[in-house]
Automatic annotation (TrEMBL):
This is Orn/DAP/Arg decarboxylase 2 N-terminal domain-containing protein. One of its GO terms (molecular function) is diaminopimelate decarboxylase activity. It comes from the Archaea. Its cofactor is pyridoxal 5'-phosphate. The modification N6-(pyridoxal phosphate)lysine is found at K48. Residues 25-271 form the Orn/DAP/Arg decarboxylase 2 N-terminal domain. Keywords: Pyridoxal phosphate. The active site is at C331. The keyword Nucleus does not apply. One of its GO terms (biological process) is lysine biosynthetic process via diaminopimelate. Signal peptide: none annotated.
Length: 403
C-alpha cells in the first residue's frame, strides 16, 4: 500500500473520507491462489466482496470467471465489459424474472438451490427459448464448518439438504430431470474465513461418494470461496488449502475421469487491497476517556457479521502516544469504531487514521444514514490514481436496466 506521505497528499487533493484500492494487490492475491490450486481450476471472483469497477476490470483482464447473486451484480459486470458467458449466476430468492434477466444477457451457468427455484428456472428457460444452459445444484455436504461465518448446517438457508425433506438433493435432481434441464454438477459454499482445509476435503469426498453411489455424472464441481485472510492473527497459508484440495480432486479425477473444478473466492482476493482514510474532526473527554470523532463511521470500517478485526494506522506529526476511543459521525449509539480506549500514536484533531484490510465486504455495506456522503473511492494502478464511482452510485442505473 502507498506510503503515508502519498496518503496525506491524496487527502489534501480529494478530501476525506476515501477508500484507496490497490490493483496490484488484487493481482498478487490472484497469482498466489492460482499457483496453489490444481492447474486447470477456474477462479470465479465472488463479486459481492467489492464492487469497485477497477476491481472488476482487473479480474476481467486476468481472464477470471465471476460469481453473482443478483441482476444488479450482473449488470455491474456487464457495464465493465465482462463476458456473461464467464458468469455463474446464483440466487437466494431464485425468481423467474432474475433468471430471465440472466438468460437474456447470455449467462449460461446457474446454481440452483430449491425445488421452486428449479421450477422457476425451467419456466424462464422455456420462455426465453435458450439452448445450452447448465445447472449446478447447491448442496450442503458437510455442516457446521469451523469458520468465522458458516453457511452450511441447521442455521443455513442456502441450497438443498441430504435428508428426505422437500428441498432435498434427491427431489431436486428429480425436478431438474423432469424439467429437462442440463445438470452439470454440484456447488457448495461452506462459509467464510474457513479455518483449515479439512472441511473442503470432507465436502469433496462426501459429494463424490454420493455421486458415485447414485451413479450421477458430475462434469463440474464448484467448491465456493471461504479462504481465510489474516486480520492480525495467523491463518493457514493458501498453499496448504490448495495442496489438500488438490489431493482430494486428483483422487476423484483418477476414479471418475476429468471434471471441471471451480473456486469462488471473494475475501482472499480483495481484503488486503483497500484502506479507508478518515480524518479526526472532533475530540472530547467524557466518562474518564478521550474520544476521537472521525468523519467516517463503523460501517465504513468493518461489518460484524463478516467477522473482521480492525487494523489501524495513523498519520500524525506527534510522537506522544494517546489513549483514545474512536467514534463515528453518525447519530446512532452503536457507531463506535473502537469503543474501549486503545493506545494510538499521538493522534489529535485534523490527523488522519488509516484502516487496513477494508477491501472485502465493507464498502458494499456503507449506509447513507443521516444523508451524509459515502466515501470517495480512489484506485491506484501502476502508480496512477483514479477516482471511481462508489458502488452505490450505480444502483439507480441498475434499476433502469432490470426494471
Ligand atoms: C456462494 C458464495 N460463493 C463465494 C463466496 C465468497 O466467500 P469468501 O469471500 O469467504 O471467499 C460467498 C460469500 O458469501 C458465497 O456466498
Amino acid at each position: 500500500m502507498m506510503d503515508k506521505e502519498c496518503i496525506s497528499q491524496l487527502a489534501d487533493e480529494h478530501g476525506t473520507p476515501f477508500y484507496l484500492v490497490e490493483c496490484e494487490s488484487l493481482m498478487r492475491q490472484y497469482e498466489e491462489l492460482k499457483e496453489s490450486l490444481p492447474e486447470d481450476s477456474a477462479i470465479a471472483y465472488a463479486t459481492k466482496a467489492n464492487y469497485t469497477p477497477s476491481v472488476v476490470r482487473t479480474f476481467r483482464d486476468l481472464g477470471m470467471h465471476f460469481d453473482v447473486f443478483s441482476p444488479g451484480e450482473l449488470n455491474l459486470l456487464m457495464r465493465n465489459g465482462c463476458d456473461p458467458g464467464r458468469v455463474i449466476y446464483t440466487s437466494v430468492a431464485e425468481q423467474e424474472e432474475e433468471f430471465m434477466f440472466g438468460l437474456k444477457n447470455g449467462v449460461s451457468r446457474f446454481v440452483l438451490g430449491s425445488i421452486n427455484g428449479i421450477k422457476n428456472f425451467g419456466e424462464a428457460v422455456e420462455r426465453e427459448g435458450v439452448g445450452e444452459v447448465e445447472v449446478l445444484l447447491r448442496i450442503q455436504p458437510v455442516t457446521n464448518v469451523d469458520a468465522a461465518v458458516s453457511t452450511s448446517g441447521v442455521e443455513s438457508k442456502f441450497g438443498t439438504v441430504f435428508s428426505g425433506e422437500k428441498d432435498s438433493v434427491g427431489n431436486a435432481l428429480k425436478t431438474i430431470d423432469e424439467r429437462d434441464l442440463d445438470f452439470a454438477g454440484f456447488h457448495f459454499h461452506l462459509g467464510s474465513q474457513i479455518k483449515s482445509p479439512d472441511p473442503y476435503v470432507r465436502a469433496i469426498n462426501e459429494t463424490f461418494d454420493f455421486a458415485w453411489s447414485h451413479d450421477i455424472d458430475v462434469r463440474v464441481l464448484d467448491i465456493g470461496g471461504g479462504f481465510p485472510v489474516s486480520y492480525g492473527f495467523d491463518v493457514p497459508p493458501i498453499e496448504k488449502f490448495g495442496a489438500e484440495i488438490g489431493k482430494a480432486i486428483e483422487k476423484w479425477r483418477e476414479k471418475l475421469g476429468g471434471f471441471e473444478l471451480i473456486v469462488e473466492p471473494g475475501r482472499f482476493l480483495t481484503a488486503d487491497s483497500t484502506v479507508l482514510v478518515v480524518k479526526v474532526v472532533n475530540e472530547k473527554e467524557m466518562y474518564g476517556k478521550r474520544v476521537l470523532i472521525v468523519n467516517g463511521s463503523e460501517d465504513m470500517v468493518s461489518v460484524d457479521r463478516h467477522d473482521m478485526r480492525i487494523e489501524i494506522g495513523a498519520i500524525t506529526d506527534s510522537t506522544k502516544p494517546v489513549e483514545a476511543a474512536i467514534a463515528g459521525n453518525l447519530c446512532h449509539s452503536l457507531d463506535w469504531i473502537v469503543k474501549e480506549p486503545i493506545e494510538l500514536p499521538g493522534v489529535g484533531l485534523e490527523d488522519l487514521l488509516v484502516f487496513e484490510k477494508t477491501g472485502a465486504y465493507v464498502m458494499n455495506h456503507n449506509i447513507p444514514y443521516n444523508l451524509r456522503k459515502v466515501p470517495k473511492v480512489l484506485t491506484v494502478s501502476e502508480g496512477e490514481v483514479e477516482e471511481e464511482e462508489h458502488p452505490f452510485s450505480t444502483v439507480g442505473k441498475i434499476k433502469a436496466v432490470y426494471g
